[in-house]
Amino acid sequence: MVEFSSIYRRIDLLETHQMSTTAKKILFVLSPFERAHFFPDLFLDTWLEASGHDYRIIEPGDFEQAMNAFHPEILVGGWDMPALPLEAMESNGGTLRYFCFLPGSSKKQISEKHLEAGLLHSNWGTWGAPYVAECALLLMLSAQRRVARWSYQLRETGQWRERATDNRSLFGKRVGLRGFGAIAQSLVELLQPFHPEITADSSVPDDLLARYKVKRAESTEALFAESDVLVELKPLTVNTRKSVDERLLRLLPEGASFINIGRGQVVDEAALIRVAREGRIQIALDVFEQEPLPKESPLRTLPNVFLLPHMGGATGDRGMDCGRRALGNVERYIAGKPLENLVDLEQFKRST
Question: CA nearest 126: which of 287, 310, 261, 2?
Answer without folding.
Answer: 2
